[in-house]
Amino acid sequence: MKKIFISAVFALVILASCKKDLSTNAGDQQPAITSNATSASGNPTFNLEVILRGDGEAFGLIKFRQDNDAAKIISLDTWVRDLAPGHSYLLQRAVDAINVIDGNCTSTSWLTLGKGLIPQAILTNDKGTGREDLWRSIAAIPTGSNFDIHFRVIDAVTMAVVLTSDCYEYTVR
C-alpha cells in the first residue's frame, strides 16, 4: 500500500511539473522531484531533468548537466525503477539536426551512452532499481549549438524499448 501511495504522489508531482530538480535520497537512491520554472523563457537550456516513462510503473530520470568548462563534458546521472530485477539496460539518445529547434524530435539515429565513448549498462538490483553515472564529451560541437533531443532506455539483451522521454531542447555551453 505504501508503494502505491508513493507512486501516486510521484505521478501527481510529475504531471504538475514542467521541469524537475533532482536530489538523491537514502535507500534505493531515488531522486526527489520538486517543481521549478520551465526553460520556455528563452534562456539557453544547458541542463535538463529528463523524465523517462514506460509501461505500468516503470520510470526513470536523467540529471543531464554540462559544466561551464573547456572540456565540454555532459554528465548523465541516470536512475531507473520498476524494471526487471537483476537485469541490464542501456541509455540511448537521438538528436535532430543542429540548430533546427521545433520541439518535435524526429531523429531515430540512436546513440548508446556510457562512460565517454564506451557504452555502459545500467544494472538493476533485486527490486528493479538501477543507477549509473554516465558521461559524454561534446568537445567537437560548437558552443551555442541547439538541438532537439530525446532519450530511451532499452533492454540490453532483447533491445526492446522499456522507457522513453519527451522531446527536450538543449544548448551546448
Short overview:
With 173 residues, this protein is mostly beta strands.
Write the layout of secondary structure elements.
Elements (H helix, E strand, L loop, with lengths): L1 H15 L2 E6 L6 E6 L11 E6 L5 E8 L6 E9 L6 E8 L15 E2 L1 E2 L2 E2 L2 E2 L6 E8 L8 E10 L5 E5 L2 E4 L2
Antiparallel strand pairs: 1-2, 3-4, 3-13, 4-5, 5-11, 6-7, 6-10, 6-12, 8-9, 12-13, 12-14
Which structural traits does this protein have?
single chain, 173 residues, mainly beta, 10-stranded antiparallel β-sheet, two-stranded antiparallel ribbon, 14 strands, disordered N terminus
Structural commentary:
The chain is mainly beta and 173 residues long. It contains one helix and 14 strands; from the N terminus they run αββββββββββββββ. Strands 3, 4, 5, 6, 7, 10, 11, 12, 13 and 14 form a ten-stranded antiparallel sheet that branches. A two-stranded antiparallel ribbon has the order 1-2. It is globular. Mean pLDDT is 82; it is low at 1-41.
Mean pLDDT over the residues: 82
Number of strands: 14
Strand fraction equals over 45%
Binned, the helix content reads: under 10%
N-to-C CA distance: 44 Å
Low-confidence segments, ≥5 residues, pLDDT <50? 1-41
Largest sheet: 10 strands, antiparallel
